[in-house]
Amino acid sequence: MKSALVKKLDIYPQPTMIRRPPTVVCYICGHEYGTKSISIHEPQCLKKWHNENNLLPKELRRPEPKKPEVRTITAKGFYDLDALNEAAWTSVQSQLVPCNIYGRTFLPERLIVHQRSCKPKAAK
């Protein structure tokens, strides 16, 4: 004979695992996009990157990010999305600039904002 709790649990359906659609990390900004929309996003993101980079002081300007080459192909002939996303994330992280006082890394346009309030700790 089933207990009251087991009977109550039988009434409610068990939650099913919802699988997210595959996403690709943009090598420029680091955001995730669907496999179909990444090809639309990348040219627009690169154009935005150029506009923002040109507004930075010369010492903070960076070279254009290069799209990482990932040649890992699965047995079915598809790219390994995990390897592609890992390479894109590494590309994004390499664009960060460290604070000259504490060493924390920022995007160049955010480093300017950080430096306004960043002061070295006073010696005790």
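Next protein, fold it too.
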Amino acid sequence: MATGTPDSQARFGQSVKGLLTEKVNACGTDVIALTKQVLKGSRSSELLGQAARNMVLQEDAILHSEDSLRKMAIITTHLQYHVEQSSDLQDQLNHLLK
């Protein structure tokens, strides 16, 4: 196996070191970018989870409101019945007092 001159070996060594440094820097940059994406994805998952929890809370509030409206409608019907009944009783009382 032939060996090159010490000067050419030094240049080759510097060239390899330079290429390795570039590759290490590129890999470091890629790892940083990947980490940012993972963190962004994690944050997105957190936000989606929070949105889902908020939606469940809103759904419960809506269901409770619907139930309250149904009960108020029943109470309104009963009150209308009592108003009509009171009106009829008042008419009967007026008729008796004449």
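About the second fold: Residues 6-97 form the longest helix (92 residues).
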